[in-house]
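Technical annex B. To support the medicinal chemistry partners, we prepared a structural model of the target in complex with pyridoxine-5'-phosphate, based solely on the information shown next.
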Amino acid sequence: MLEFTGRNVRTRGNGGKRAMRLYVNVDHVATVRQARRATEPDPAEAAALCEAAGADGITVHLREDRRHIRDDDVHRLAAQVRTVLNLELATAPDIVALAARLRPHQATFVPERREEITTEGGLQLTGPGSPGPALVDAIARLRDAGIRLSLFVTPDLPTLDVAARLGVDAVELHTGAYAHAFPQAGRQLAQLLEAARHARRLGLAAHAGHGLTYANVHAVAALAEIEELNIGHSIVSHALFVGMSVAVAEMRAIVNAARVDQPQTRP
Ligand code: PXP
C-alpha cells in the first residue's frame, strides 16, 4: 500500500531498514523533445514531477553530441532541483568546466562513444594506459570544486581497486549484464553483490544502474550494500502511459518494498 508523506511515497512499515536512494534519469524526456528540435517536453518540468513523486535525486547525462540533454537544461536543473542533481559526464573539457562551474551535488563519470545508442560499458580503469590522464585530471578538477564523485564501472573487483585509488566517493555498478540476463540472472546478481561488498570494504559507496526496469529492479534494490539506483528509460517509458508521477511512485514502491522483503545480502 502506498502512503503519500509529503514529497515521498513510501510503502507501509519499511522496518527501519536503510533506505535506497532512487535517482530518476530524465534524459529521454529530452530525447522526445530533440526528435522535433522543439521546446517540449521539458526535462526540467519532468524533474519537478519526479521529485514530487518521491525521487531522491535527478540524473542527467550531458553527452558530447548533445543528443538529448543540452547545456541550458543542466543550468536550469542546477538552479531548480530541490533534491540533488547527479550529472553524468565523460571527460570533454567543456563539460568538465561546466560541472565545475555549476557544482551539482554529484558527478558520475561515464565512458562515451559517439556511435553508441546508450552508455554501453563501464569506464576502462585497468590495463595499459588506463585510467588515462584525462580522467585523472577531470577527477582532480571536480574534487577541487567540492563535488561528490562517482565512477560508472562494470562489477569487476580489480576495476574497483583502481577506482578507490583514484580517490572518488562512489562507484556506480553497471547493471546492464544483469538486466540482459534477467530472469536467469543469478550469476550476474552475485557479481553485483560481490562488487558492492568489495566497494564498501574499500570505503566506496556503491550505486547501481543501467537497464533496470519495473520487472527486474527488485533483486538489485534488495542488496543492502547498494545505496543508490539510477533509473531512466523504464520510468520515462512507463510515464508515457501512466504519467510521470505515477511512474515514479510505482518504482519508488517497488524499491522500498525490496528493502523490506529481502534481507538476502546478510552473510
Ligand atoms: N546510470 C548510468 C551511468 C547511465 O549512463 C544510464 C543511462 O544513461 C543509467 C544509469 C540509466 O539507464 P537506463 O536508462 O537504462 O535506466
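Notes passed to the chemistry partners:
Residues 155 and 195 are 5 Å apart (CA to CA).
Residues 25, 27, 61, 88, 108, 110, 118-119, 152, 172, 209-212, 230-234 surround pyridoxine-5'-phosphate (CB under 6 Å).
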